[in-house]
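Why do we bother with a discrete structure alphabet at all? Because it lets us treat a fold like text: something you can write down, compare, and reason about line by line. To make this less abstract, here is a complete entry for SDR family NAD(P)-dependent oxidoreductase. Read it the way you would read a sentence in a foreign language you are learning: slowly, and without expecting to understand everything at once.
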Amino acid sequence: MNAAGTVQPERGPRVRTALVTGANRGLGRAVAAELHSRGFEVVVSARDGARAREAAAGLGRSVRHVALDVTDPASVTAAARALPEVDVLVSNAGVLLDTGADPLTVEPELVERTMAVNLLGSWRVAQAFLPAMIDRGWGRLVFVSSATGSFTAGLFIGCPAYSVSKAALNGLTQMLAAHTEGTGVLVNAVNPGQTKTRMMPSATRTAEESAIAVADAVTLPDSGPTGTFRRGDRLIGW
């Protein structure tokens, strides 16, 4: 157990395998790098298999890659068949398409595309990988969410589709946590905060800094919480 109260993955023949979606750049790549540094066997995924391969090569020879488009059922099914040993799923793939819009003017097509990735894509990969974790009696599912989807803080109307998609993702977190309670699988959502990526270039927090909070949720001990919304070691209201 480290100073943050989290545990390291077991070494040797039982090293845990972690799959990170949308990991070819930005926060996803930083999360993959952080988990790799903590001893996980990491699989980098992206819609474009070549970009996933390039990102994996840059993280280390032991890092694997897989093509995975969360909006494509066939792609998700193929990835799940190729990776039956996944113990940890970090559902990071997401889009922000409606910055500056408002609920009455945002194009419905943008709402559909946003929900297809941020909610349905996350739901699809959870359905593909969670059952095997439950069968093995151990697993971690971490959704990368956002405070824009918190009813406690107030949904942010400046990107309505994104905010609603993250609110729905938070709801999915609670449902899956309830469904997996007592199975050895922990399901939590993390708000990494505004992070400097292609999605949010004006932010000052680096992807590497934000990745620590996501990795800490992955390395919660077996007695750790499930069904929570987290910012580092602090809980956030739904």
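What the structure line is telling us, in plain words: Residues 108-136 form the longest helix (29 residues). The chain is about 40% helix and 15% strand.
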